[in-house]
Amino acid sequence: MADRPDLRTAVRSAVAEAAWYHTAVFYQVYLRSFADGNGDGVGDLAGLRARLQYLRELGVDAIWLNPWYCSPMADGGYDVADYRDIDPVFGTLADAESVIAEAHAHQLKVIIDMVPNHCSNQHRWFRAALAAGPGSPERARFWFRPGRGESGVQPPNDWPSKFGGPAWTRVIEQDGAPGEWYLHLYATEQPDLNWENREVRAEFEGILRFWLDRGVDGFRIDVAEALVKDPALPDVATRAEGSGMPWEDQDGLHDIYRDWRRLIDSYPGDRLFVGEFWLRPVTRLQPYLSSDQLHMAFNFDYLSAPWDPARLRTVIDATLSTVGAAASWVLSNHDVTRHLTRYGRADTSHDWRRDPSTVDLELGTRRARAAALLSLALPGSVYLYQGEELGLWEVDDIPDELIADPLWERTGHLVRGRDGCRVPLPWQAGAPGFGFGPPGAAPPWLPQPAGWRDLAADAQAGVPDSMLELYRAALRIRRSRRLTVADSLAWLDAGAGVLAFSRSGFSCVLNTSGRLARIPPCEEVLLASGPLVEDMLPPDTACWLSAKPSP
Asked: Where are the alpha helices (DSSP H) in 435-501?
């Protein structure tokens, strides 16, 4: 039937509009740095429980938790040793169940990280693989291969680790001799799992059920594009020009996510999968966001876009025309330089591997406030990274001896890594550690800048012009006006350097030019990221307008 594809599209659209996550605001909790409940200097589940009311009052709809599983913490918990238990530094499994229940009582959904590409080298499976030896079923769960060259002294191929150095490490066999190599796209302590293996697939379906049975509302899938590798393991240097990397976007991924979708759809309620795909352009996400695979994906084209109206509009148009609200809007997360700092640099695009350059924090703050209004006005969902609502900047001067990110060592101290966006939050301006922990607590696990005193949550609460109150106001207006009901917008002609669009009686205007820009006729200015000059919008400022009634 010729009209069947249109019917399917209409059905998917209707379902998407009904699902809570297509209009939700998610708040990312990097647990180690959110709030310390037991006083050991590390954030934990007790600290999160004590701050759930803060999140409800902020106005978000859901929280996304970074890994809380048992882990040696070689990569901040992304090296998982046990997917069915909570690391003692964060609490217990009972604590996790309490957090889920209490979050739901605060009308907050909970999604958690799933880390399926790799596990820890301390995982029981990997320890068994080392003990079992070459050719064993235990090693078939991973990517063990003999080396190349005389006596196998060279890695099986030229794949690089994303954390620096080769993506292969040679093991010492039980007889004490150098043996096979195993693949790890990230740190040495994170061996990649082989998703061609049925045991791996069955194990993760069991893990998903374990957490769904405990009430989680969904999962963010770490490294979602890399689970399946080209089985030939070809050298990167010999791949065809224009082809992707042999560990990303492989056809077999779709079968995995179809299986997962059938599993999650068997549970009541609108539960979701959101994929972390570092695939560009955004159009490459579309095949994964069909009705039988994932529900959403992060929009890293938007996160990476520089402070440039043409680039921003191009990304917004491409997103809405290809994946609509299935792609979320995000400015920062635990893996990238905080956008306030990025917007204060000469080069405002995202690249956390560069050495930090001079930052104009005043300019970055002004732009970050404007970017918040732009993101929250767009159709679809939004992910906020903890502390962006406080106006926190990237901490570039963490002492070398305190850096925990494996990038620092793997790159021979050339890349300082991601710890600068993971510094513990300031809650109370007058308390030791800015109230990150209870009275008498150990110092936070990473040092906080003295300048964060003025950015503490209690110092900003109730202050009309503060970043915190801007976010609260924006989220309140977004919710009350249901700004994300439709997945479309209409661009307005507002002059060079100005982005302006309307949506169902509402308009957003962003001035990225170096001059004052006239505000379009409106009934009311609902919110502005900075002071207006009569009917003019200053540079690097955004505002929300209610539409002028028709005559």
From this structure: 457-460, 467-481
| CATH number of the domain located at residue range(s) 124-183 in this protein | 3.90.400.10
Q: Does CATH place domain 489-551 in 2.60.40?
A: yes
93 secondary structure, DSSP code: H
Specify the domain boundaries for CATH 2.60.40 within the chain: 489-551
489-541 residue pLDDT tens:
899 998 899 999 998 888 999 999 999 999 999 999 999 999 999 999 999 99
449: preceding bond cis by omega (within 30 degrees): no
d(CA 345, CA 341): 7
The whole-angstrom separation of Cα 407 and Cα 282 is 27
Q: Where in the chain is the domain with CATH 3.20.20.80?
A: 19-117+198-393+425-460
What is each CA distance from 241 to 106, 236, 237, 245, 247, in whole angstroms? 52, 10, 10, 11, 16
Kindly state the tokens that stand for 439.
């009275």
Strand partners of residue 220? 113, 274
Q: Is 244 left (phi over 0), alpha (psi -120 to 50) or beta?
A: beta
Q: Residue 238's pLDDT is what?
A: 85
Can you name the residues that pair with 160 across neighbouring β-strands? 166
pLDDT per residue over 424-459, tens digit each?
999 999 999 999 999 999 999 999 999 999 999 999
The order of strands in the sheet holding 498-503 is: 490-491, 498-503, 506-511, 541-546, 524-528
* In the chain, ranges of CATH 3.90.400.10 domains: 124-183
CATH classification of 19-117+198-393+425-460, choosing from 3.40.50.300, 3.20.20.80, 3.90.420.10, 3.40.50.150?
Answer: 3.20.20.80
> Which residues on adjacent β-strands are paired with residue 28?
64, 385
In the predicted structure, residue 485 carries a pLDDT above the cut 80: no
Residue 2 has pLDDT above 70, yes or no: no
In this structure, what are the phi and psi dihedrals at residue 274, rounded to the nearest 5 degrees? -120, 125
Give per-residue pLDDT as tens, 61-106: 999 999 999 999 999 999 999 999 999 999 999 999 999 999 999 9
First to last CA, the chain: 45
Q: What does the pLDDT read at residue 414? A: 86
User: Is residue 227 within 8 Å of residue 195, measured between CB atoms?
Assistant: yes
What lies within 8 Å, CB to CB, of 38 at 6+ separation is: 44, 46, 47, 437, 438
Element (H, E) at 235: none
